[in-house]
From TrEMBL:
The keyword Transferase applies. The keyword Repeat does not apply. Pathway: Carbohydrate metabolism; tricarboxylic acid cycle. Keywords: Transferase. Belongs to the citrate synthase family. It catalyses: oxaloacetate + acetyl-CoA + H2O = citrate + CoA + H(+). This is Citrate synthase. It comes from Companilactobacillus mishanensis. Pfam families: Citrate_synt (PF00285).
Length: 369
């Protein structure tokens, strides 16, 4: 029998949260392009993912207030972060440990998604601050969720333009159907395990370079080109000649271009111009033109995200942390949906190893020798 490697093209379940059908990304039926163009807030999209409907003005105001008020960490978590966040391990490994710890403190049996999301955002911001040798920052009740997250990471309160752009970045990363980390979270949720166990598993999956970690590899590539003062096209040709994968290009679903990348490209250009990083952006455009002409490969969501995070002043090792912060909202939506199904995910496999062996016969042969 022929099997799709990596479950490519296999429909394993139903969902009302998001869709990539016909290479169009929608959240509960709304296109992400329209949501981004309308300058929706991150909280509004989180509400949409969790309840599959848009909130009223009163609901949104209360939802935002509730989330912001919960962006506080337990003392035990802070003590651990101060101890481990500067360790040489990858920041995603630190987040993995932190997420697990969050599931053991402050009466977590009664933690619900709003509090869990709020604590995850604050924990990620805290990891970044500690690694930058900067003090923790308390949440500002006058700011929204995305603005607070950006402020608590960078120490700078965003102006209206940056606020709008960063809200869009978080929205575009909020969910993406049954991607690897989301499906991992759903598998754990199907066992009726707790929320924090599901998120810990999702963080582990997102860490990999073929998933969330790809944005770090993109920036490593850009830095290598810049540091060597090498022609970008020659660099790519050499990498391809060595059989290396060019990170940030192609997508299993979007064969004609990632809709998120088109929006992020404009944001990357604006931020690059404002922060004197146009050299990076110009290299990206040269590479994108070449890869499209040579292999018909389009940039994916990780390609421009790498430059955006750099322009925000973040170290490349923390890029995937920010993606995890955005994606936690979607992970929680899928965990809630999977728990409502009350169905254990347990697929079958086709065994292709040796058959008809006899342990007694084989051990007798060994003894005879």
């Amino acid at each position: 029998m022929d099997h799709a490697k990596g479950l490519a093209g296999i429909v394993v379940d139903e969902t009302k949260i998001s869709s990539t059908k016909n290479e169009k990304l929608t959240y509960a039926g709304y296109s992400v392009e329209e949501i981004a163009k309308a300058h929706a807030s991150f909280e509004e999209v989180v509400f949409l993912l969790w309840y599959t409907r848009l909130p009223s003005e009163d609901e949104l105001r209360e939802f935002r207030r509730d989330l912001v008020s919960k962006m506080v960490l337990p003392a035990e978590t802070i003590r651990l972060l101060l101890y481990i966040a500067k360790e040489p391990q990858h920041p995603m490994s630190i987040l993995r440990t932190t997420t697990s710890l969050l599931g053991t403190t402050n009466d977590v049996d009664h933690d619900e998604p709003p509090k869990i999301l709020a604590k995850m955002l604050t924990a990620i911001a805290a990891i970044i601050r500690i690694r930058d040798d900067e003090p923790f920052l308390d949440v500002d009740p006058e700011l929204g969720v995305a603005d607070n997250f950006l402020y608590m990471m960078t120490g700078k309160k965003p102006n209206a333009e940056l606020s709008q752009m960063f809200n869009t970045v978080m929205i575009l990363h909020a969910d993406h159907e049954f991607n690897a980390s989301t499906f991992t979270a759903r598998v754990v949720a199907s066992t009726m395990s707790d929320y924090y166990s599901c998120l810990t598993a999702a963080v582990c999956a997102l860490k990999g370079p073929l998933h969330g970690g790809a944005n770090e590899r993109v920036f490593e590539m850009l830095n290598e080109i810049m540091s060597q003062d090498e022609d970008p096209i020659d660099f790519i040709k050499n990498e391809i000649g060595r059989g290396r994968k060019i990170m940030g290009f192609g997508h299993r679903i979007y064969k004609h271009g990632d809709p998120r990348a088109y929006i992020l490209k404009d944001i990357a250009e604006k931020l690059a111009e404002e922060t004197d990083n146009m050299d990076y952006y110009n290299i990206q455009q040269q590479l994108a033109d070449y890869m499209l002409e040579k292999d018909h490969l389009h940039p994916n969501v990780d390609y421009y995200t790498a430059l955006i995070y750099h322009c925000l002043g973040l170290e490349k090792e923390t890029f995937t942390l920010v993606s995890a912060a955005c994606r936690t909202s979607g992970w929680l939506a899928h965990v809630m949906e999977q728990r409502r199904e009350k169905t254990l995910i347990r697929p079958n496999s086709e065994y292709v190893g040796p058959t008809n062996r006899s342990y007694l016969e084989d051990t007798a042969v060994k003894e005879a020798r």
